[in-house]
Amino acid sequence: MKLKVGTRGSNLAKIQATAVVNILKEAGLDAEIVIISTKGDRIQHLPIHKVGKNGVFVGELEGALREGAVDIAVHSLKDMPSKIAPGFTLAPPPAAPADVDVFVGTGDKFREEDLASMVVATGSNRRIAQLKHFYPDVKIVPIRGNVETRINKVESGLADGTLLAYAGLLRAGLSHKATAELNPTRFIPSPSQGLLGIELAEDRRDLLKVFTQASDPRAAFRMKVERSFQRELNASCASPIGIHIEEKEGEILLHGCFAETAEDPLIYATVTTTKEKASDDVFELVRKVKGHE
Ligand SMILES: NCc1[nH]cc(CCC(=O)O)c1CC(=O)O
């Protein structure tokens, strides 16, 4: 019997699901993609944090898992809530192409300071809070839709540019649309940005083993540390939150930013640690971004 891999219908989602199908095929298992539409895809006129409180792209896929209509649900891990529904688990992910955000603009040059006087299209509370933190006079316009739609809207004149996850552009073959990479210690990426969320029923040890063998140690480390940061801050998808793990001369720097709501000031902090201590020291970063020194 063919394994069924559930995914949303966007181009990027299908590319991510194909990567999962290929992991299964490499392990000698036959698999096919099953497309499932989610609330986040159907409601296109609202900013994402108004569509639902948590996991607006996740509910229907978990429903399909629960009914047995699919064996595996593939998500962008950054779209997943801190707590996974009972009975399900997340497999450690394969290597991610990048965690950073990029600027996608109408011009061919970009200097970060130019943002000060630009019109930037984004609906993400994290990106809005970061833009306003460094460039209080920046103008923001809302935007929704999948990656291709957003790029089309910007190219049609909606704004001077938009901020997107580089991973999505790389996977979709659209990396030539990126004008420049943003500094990940200032435009700190979302927790788990670029990582695949491979969700399974807890009792599918057979599948968990296959994905564990295909997982990337660095990606698994990012998932552990970045999701514990998100969980500990009890962040909803409306809370501006970012974390970036930098490896530097044998040390690990944890860069984070957080605000309870889009109206609160964004607090930035950095903690220096090691690979071995990072999972404990991430709680130090949590305290700092909450404003407790
Ligand atoms: N919030 C929507 C979303 N979910 C995952 C990605 C991109 C791929 C990823 O980060 O894994 C995007 C688009 C974006 O933020 O540019």
UniProtKB/TrEMBL annotation:
Limits of the Porphobilinogen deaminase C-terminal domain: 221-285
Enzyme Commission designation: 2.5.1.61
Recorded catalytic activity of this chain's protein: 4 porphobilinogen + H2O = hydroxymethylbilane + 4 NH4(+)
Enzyme class label: transferase
Domain of life, per lineage: Bacteria
Cofactor (UniProt): dipyrromethane
Molecular function (Gene Ontology), one example: hydroxymethylbilane synthase activity
Domain Porphobilinogen deaminase N-terminal intervals: 3-207
Gene3D superfamilies named among the record's database cross-references: Periplasmic binding protein-like II (3.40.190.10), Porphobilinogen deaminase, C-terminal domain (3.30.160.40)
Claim: Transferase is one of the keywords in the record: yes
Entry-linked Pfam families: Porphobil_deam (PF01379), Porphobil_deamC (PF03900)
Annotated keywords: Porphyrin biosynthesis, Transferase
Family label: Belongs to the HMBS family.
Function: Tetrapolymerization of the monopyrrole PBG into the hydroxymethylbilane pre-uroporphyrinogen in several discrete steps.
Name of protein: Hydroxymethylbilane synthase
Species of the source: Aedoeadaptatus acetigenes
